[in-house]
DNA sequence: AGGGGTACCTGCGGGC
DNA sequence: TGCCCGCAGGTACCCC
């Protein structure tokens, strides 16, 4: 699912709409989604809390509540946050969003609802008093769109991880937080680097180009509200598709012709994930 | 340390 | 038409 641009789009959507609202009650349809607390505690703790602030870290959405608690949401592959959720909006938005996959419903005091819907149920919801309780967030690496992700920081990472294949490295959340399969494919294509290249083989120019493409692909994707590939699940909080999909030049384009050189786009599996590339533009 | 496999889920499209 | 297979934006855990 959602990688950094999609999660950032959802975060911005919620920010404009639910900050300041008070939670009246919660309906949890599937407790397997809820981590780190019993269901009754989860529901009781959330009642009467006010949404104070919304942040993003990697692919996580962090909702600060008052009195102090943090609601942390990871969308997995197919998680969605829909607001405002109204009866039958599933059909209006898209046949893809089925009410039977509404796993958590937040009812606000003004009678509006925020719905967490997730077909495949890989998503996770945590409620904690301290962010340090969410182990996986502690381990996240640099935020690629923040200043901390500088050319120097990136060179330092490459230096430390020389033996990795470049695609494997970019996919690691504990190194750079927020990249996933779509954007890694896209970034490597634009940087003309084969996904299986050993990091130690990258020239200075290639590393620099790669750094710039990470920043520019993500920035542009955020600007376009992320990517909804073909007719897949991702939607923003209003149920709208991400408009960056039509800008994707390599992802899911097996057999099509490379826009730069006209060669046929190939696909291989790397660590179990489909990896698309043009062997002419991205030499091994 | 890095690489591979599997598991967690549902739904869709293709091949037969 | 139906069944089986492989595939899908992620992560965690196991093994070598």
- The outline comes out as globular
Strand order of the largest sheet: 2-9-5-4-3
Report on the biggest sheet. 5 strands, mixed
Low-confidence sequence ranges: none
Roughly what fraction of the amino acids lie in strands? 15-25%
Arithmetic mean pLDDT: 94
Query: Which structural class matches the secondary elements?
Result: alpha+beta
Number of distinct beta strands: 11
**Considering DSSP H and I runs of 4 or more, what fraction of the residues is helical?**
25-40%
The span between the termini is 28 Å
- Number of continuous helical runs: 8
Task: Provide the gyration radius in Å.
Answer: 20 Å
| Element-level helix/strand string | HEEHEEEEHEEEHHHHHEE
Summarize the structure.
The chain is 27% helix and 21% strand. It is of the alpha+beta class.
What does this protein structure show overall?
The chain has 284 residues and is of the alpha+beta class. It is built from eight helices and eleven strands. A hairpin with a 2-residue loop joins strand 3 (50-57) and strand 4. Helix 1 packs parallel to helix 8 (204-223). The protein is globular. It starts with a helix and ends in a 7-residue tail after the last strand.
Lay out the secondary structure.
Blueprint (H helix, E strand, L loop, with lengths): L3 H15 L4 E6 L5 E2 L3 H8 L3 E8 L2 E7 L2 E6 L4 E4 L6 H5 L8 E7 L4 E6 L5 E5 L6 H4 L12 H10 L5 H6 L9 H10 L13 H20 L42 E5 L2 E5 L7
Parallel strand pairs: 2-9
Antiparallel strand pairs: 1-7, 3-4, 4-5, 5-9, 6-8, 7-8, 10-11
Helix pairs in contact: 1-8, 7-8
This protein binds a DNA duplex (16 and 16 nucleotides) through helix 7.
């Amino acid at each position: 699912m959602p990688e950094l641009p999609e999660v950032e789009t959802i975060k911005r959507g919620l920010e404009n709409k639910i900050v300041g609202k008070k939670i009246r009650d919660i309906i949890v349809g599937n407790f397997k989604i809820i981590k780190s607390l019993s269901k009754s505690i989860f529901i009781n703790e959330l009642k009467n809390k006010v949404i104070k602030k919304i942040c993003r870290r990697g692919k996580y959405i962090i909702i600060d509540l008052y009195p102090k608690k943090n609601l942390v949401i990871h969308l997995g592959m197919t998680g969605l946050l829909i607001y405002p959720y109204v009866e039958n909006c599933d059909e209006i938005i898209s046949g893809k969003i089925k009410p039977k996959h509404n796993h958590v419903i937040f009812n606000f005091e003004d009678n509006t609802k925020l719905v967490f819907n997730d077909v495949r149920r890989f998503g996770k919801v945590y409620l904690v008093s301290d962010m340090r309780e969410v182990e996986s967030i502690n381990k996240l690496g640099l935020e690629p769109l923040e200043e901390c992700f500088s050319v120097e920081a990136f060179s330092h990472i490459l230096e430390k991880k020389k033996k990795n294949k470049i695609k494997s490295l970019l996919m690691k959340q504990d190194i750079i937080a927020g990249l996933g399969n779509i954007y890694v494919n896209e970034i490597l294509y634009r940087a003309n680097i084969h996904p299986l290249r050993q990091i130690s083989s990258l020239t200075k120019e290639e590393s620099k180009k790669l750094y710039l493409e990470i920043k520019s692909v993500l920035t542009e994707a955020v600007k376009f509200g992320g990517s909804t590939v073909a007719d897949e699940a991702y939607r923003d909080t209003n149920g709208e598709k991400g408009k960056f999909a039509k800008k994707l030049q390599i992802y899911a384009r097996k057999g099509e012709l490379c826009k730069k050189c006209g060669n046929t786009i190939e696909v291989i599996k790397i660590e179990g994930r489909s990896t698309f590339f043009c062997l002419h533009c991205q030499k091994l």
